[in-house]
Design brief:
By secondary structure, the protein is of the alpha+beta class. It has 16 helices and 14 strands. The chain has helices spanning about 1-15, 40-50, 70-90, 145-150, 150-155, 180-210, 220-225, 230-245, 250-290, 295-325, 330-340, 340-350, 355-370, 410-415, 440-455, 490-510; strands spanning about 110-120, 120-130, 140, 375-380, 385-390, 395-400, 405-410, 420, 425-435, 460-470, 475-485, 520-525, 530-540, 545-550. The strands form four sheets. The protein has a five-stranded antiparallel sheet. Strands 1-2-3 form a three-stranded antiparallel sheet, with helices on both faces. A three-stranded antiparallel sheet has the order 9-11-10, covered by helices on one side.
Length: about 550
């Protein structure tokens, strides 16, 4: 019965002109530019009039017939501004869904609901109503129940600034924000930047003071890593909270929230990266100070820290970028589509990235097993150098002539190579010289001792020195000098000095350097003194051929 009664009442209102009823009689005739023929035209015209503060047009879009005629003009202007304020912040109109036909929604010929706004524990419909306008032409206005609820809606979602600030600050909006909101955003951004900087300095100073009272060094790294990221995180939080006070429209508020959320994610990722870097340096310095001269342990730890740091950094970048992209609906839809085909895509990607994945796992395995470490002296691909950099996919070897040899990680896991400093950097170096059989070996040993205590004293570590006869041939014998040094570089330089000085020493000896000697023996033959037979032979060394020359026969 109630529904039928409302329908009958509405029909009576449509024929109101015949009974002496007129819509908003206290406002007079509407201006010619007021277009209320369709729901879409009414909404667009209302927003245009209220944003332009056109007091002549604003009230004509509201049902004000329930008010006394003398109050309709003033109350209409006030209620229109308040409704505009609420609608701008709580509704985002999709005009493609608002009827553009004079008859409105086919489901209800008298009303057209254009949205809902929270009010108390429920929702309040924002509705348009079709009534009889001038000369009996049907027009659309905001319904009586919507107009009666404007004050309640404004108290919950509005701001007293609307009636305090100068009217020009509420002029036609730029994009979807009014002038006072742009000014408020600029002022709040500046205030949030200043406040975040002050809060950061105060909190970090207090935290560092508390950390200085503890013996652990980890808390120092936490506060050191927070210099910078904490400021931007506070700025994001303050910016998001302050934007609520400006009562931004939903699209603008979502944009501010996305920017604040993105800035907070970047700040957190930055903090993680800095904390990992400072922690790795802290651990390395602590272990080096505790291990003292244990260079091998320090190198091994440094290699592990470098590889693990790169893994954590890569994971941080991937997670941060993923969280940033997931804020956007388009990316989320792409992600859902990819997940739907995860079976086939996973198989294809796994086969395509098999080499990359194995290389990545090889980098992790190398950091754990440590066949090479940063700073080790190695021979790889017949090149002698030092391990300069270890990544997850390749190793950079600094060759002795300052070239860089980039070696895939799999090479150190699949092929043999020489590591001269795997256990310790100390090395033995050898120098071989060829000397005559009559060389005084004891004198050479004494000369080696002299060289090591004079020219080579800065390079020799005092662990080993010896001269041995290691080989001989029909003409020479091989002397090998054995020396020791603290590392490969010093061993190479020491070998060069020993080689140079031993050669100079042998040059000064009468029987030092190897020579080729031959003896000539003249024997009488049957032809008498005039004829002779010359026999040339070496100095009795076994195994050499005897070359003879004599008169030709025949």
């Amino acid at each position: 019965m109630t529904h039928r009664y409302l329908v009958l009442l509405s029909l009576l209102l449509l024929v109101a002109p015949s009974t002496g009823f007129a819509l908003n009689e206290g406002l007079g005739e509407p201006p010619p530019e007021v277009d209320r023929r369709t729901p879409s035209a009414t909404v667009a015209g209302f927003l245009d009039a209220t944003h332009a503060r056109d007091v002549a047009r604003m009230p004509h879009y509201l049902w004000l017939s329930h008010l006394p005629k003398e109050k309709q003009r003033v109350e209409g202007e006030r209620l229109a501004q308040r409704l505009m304020f609420v609608v701008d912040r709580m509704l985002w109109f999709d005009f493609s869904r608002i009827s553009q036909e004079p008859q409105g929604d086919p489901a209800d010929a008298l009303y057209d609901t254009i949205g809902q706004v929270p009010l108390g524990q429920g929702q309040r419909d924002i509705r348009l109503r079709k009534v009889s306008g001038p000369e009996g032409v049907p027009v659309w206005v905001f319904s009586e129940d919507t107009v009666r609820a404007i004050d309640a809606l404004f108290e919950e979602h509005g701001s007293p600034m609307l009636e305090v600030l100068p009217p020009f600050l509420f002029a036609r909006p730029f994009w979807i924000l009014e002038l006072w909101q742009w000014l408020g955003l600029v002022l709040w951004v500046g205030a949030a930047a200043l406040a975040s900087r002050v809060l950061e300095q105060w909190s970090l100073r207090l935290g560092k003071h508390a950390a200085s009272l503890t013996k652990s060094g980890w808390d120092d790294q936490v506060f050191a890593a927070g210099e910078g990221p904490v400021r931007y995180a506070l700025f994001a939080v303050l910016g998001a909270l302050g934007s609520r006070a400006l009562l931004l429209p939903p699209p603008a508020q979502r944009g501010v929230d996305v920017v604040a959320h993105s800035l907070a994610l970047v700040a957190v990722a930055w903090f993680v990266l800095r904390f990992v870097k400072l922690s790795a340096r802290f651990i390395e310095q602590k272990v080096v100070s505790e291990s003292g001269a244990d260079v091998g342990r320090a190198r091994g730890l440094r290699t592990q820290l470098v590889v693990m740091r790169r893994i954590i950094e890569a994971a941080t970048y991937v997670i941060a970028i993923s969280l940033l992209l997931l804020q956007f609906e388009a990316v989320r839809n792409v992600g859902v589509s990819l997940l739907a085909s995860a079976g086939i895509a996973g198989l294809v990607i796994g086969l395509a990235a098999q080499k990359s994945i194995s290389t990545l796992l090889g980098g992790i395995q190398l950091s754990i097993t440590q066949p090479v470490r940063i700073g080790d002296t190695v021979i790889v691909e017949n090149e002698w150098g030092w391990i300069e950099e270890i990544t997850l996919t390749y190793v950079v070897v600094k060759v002795w002539d300052l070239r860089r040899l980039v070696v895939p990680m799999s090479h150190f896991l699949d092929k043999p190579f020489q590591n001269w400093s795997k256990v310790s950097p100390e090395l033995l170096g050898t120098v071989e010289v060829y000397a005559d059989y009559k060389t005084n070996v004891d004198a050479v040993r004494a000369e080696l001792v002299r060289i090591l205590h004079n020219e080579g004293r800065e390079l020799w570590d005092g662990r080993a020195q010896a001269v041995q006869v290691t080989n001989c041939s029909e003409r020479t014998m091989t002397l090998r000098a054995l020396v020791s040094a603290a590392d490969a570089g010093k061993a190479f330089d020491l070998r060069c000095i020993v080689r140079e000085k031993l050669i100079a020493f042998l040059q000064q000896q009468p029987r030092g350097l190897p020579v080729l000697r031959a003896e000539a023996l003249f024997l009488p033959d049957a032809a008498g003194p005039a004829g002779s037979q010359a026999l040339a032979a070496p100095s009795g060394r076994p195994g050499e051929n005897v070359v003879s020359s004599g008169p030709r026969l025949g």
